[in-house]
Amino acid sequence: RKMQPVMRHNVQLAINAARFRSAIFFAQRLADFDPDSAENVFLLAEAYRTLGPRSPELTPRELTNSAKKDAVKKREKRTAEELERELLATPAGQENWKSHQQRAEELYLRSLGLNAPVPAAHRGLGMLYEKLGRTAEAVTAYEKYIALAPTAFDRERIVRRIETLRRT
């Protein structure tokens, strides 16, 4: 129990460092330890949303030395968004993306249904809906986030997103 805040921080660091598989691993451990914690379930949803089209585990080919060197070169030359677009162009990437987005949505909704839900779950749900092209639902989720967290650090960015989505 004392380590949960540290583990939560590790999940966020893994997501920020584009170590999405590590984020899934840490967040799953948290959610397994305390499945009734809205924050733990929220972090697992965030990890799945950011995993996107990547496979949840490395393939045997990706574990070879040559594949590791190729991955380092790709990371040096391309942004995470470019790599994600490249993966989405493949059938396996599209399949992974769909399953991870569905899992993330389920987890966000579950997190919001638990005691003391995290307002950021609405933000994550909004980002997910925006990426899925469900703009009306994204705006609603973002508005709930702003209402529940009026002093959020990313308030201005979310307000601009809402305005942009309303214009489209």
**Number of continuous helical runs:** 9
Shape from CA axes?
A: globular
Question: How big a fraction of the residues is strand?
Answer: under 5%
Helix content: over 70%
Let me know the average pLDDT. 91
Description:
The protein is an all-alpha fold and 168 residues long. The protein is built from nine helices and no strands. The chain has helices at 4-16, 20-33, 38-51, 65-77, 80-88, 91-113, 120-132, 135-148, 155-167. The chain is globular and about 50 Å long.
Overview features:
mainly alpha, single chain, 168 residues
Task: Draw up the topology in text.
Blueprint: H1 4-16, H2 20-33, H3 38-51, H4 65-77, H5 80-88, H6 91-113, H7 120-132, H8 135-148, H9 155-167
Helix pairs in contact: 1-2, 1-3, 2-3, 3-6, 3-7, 6-7, 7-8, 8-9
Sum this structure up briefly.
With 168 residues, this protein is mainly alpha-helical. The protein has nine helices and no strands. 29% of the residues are buried.
